[in-house]
Specification:
149 residues, alpha/beta, five-stranded parallel sheet
């Protein structure tokens, strides 16, 4: 049996990613580990002391709290459906953090979305999926953003 890591980004693709992971879990898994990475917003490390009057910091904090709560609800729903599920919501560079999480939780398969960004975006920004594929060495199931006919 395999432990499956499911990468959640709360995009419109999330429901399809979860549906794919559930199908895989029901036939070949010891359980799912859901991961939502809070991306770094700046290249400089976060400070320990922040400006309490900063509306940007408050907005990021509220968004983070909503995402963590939503991840917890998804995990509980899967657990209620008899799928053993754990979750984590670390912060960092997305593909590096996903690789660390997969190693930490000894996963043998990763399920994640492919948003289908164009070649220019891929050239300039890169691809999280490609970073995970190259850096992890376990099979990765990519759920496409658009289903072709």
């Amino acid at each position: 049996m395999k432990r499956i890591m499911v990468c959640i980004d709360f995009s419109p693709l999330t429901d399809r990613i979860l549906a794919t992971a559930k199908e895989l879990a029901q036939c070949m898994s010891d359980g799912l580990h859901l991961v939502h990475v809070q991306p770094e917003t700046s290249p400089t490390p976060r400070t320990v002391v922040s400006n309490p009057d900063s509306s940007v910091g408050k907005k990021e904090s509220l968004t983070r709290q909503r995402e963590v709560a939503q991840l917890g609800r998804i995990c509980q729903k899967l657990t209620d459906e008899n799928i053993q599920t754990t979750w984590s919501a670390p912060a960092g560079k997305i593909h590096e953090t996903l690789i660390r999480e997969a190693q930490k939780h000894d996963v043998q398969l990763v399920v994640m979305g492919s948003h289908g960004n164009g070649a220019v975006h891929h050239l300039v920004v890169g691809s999280v999926a490609e970073g995970v594929l190259k850096g992890l060495g376990v099979p990765v199931v990519l759920v496409p953003a658009v289903v072709s006919d």
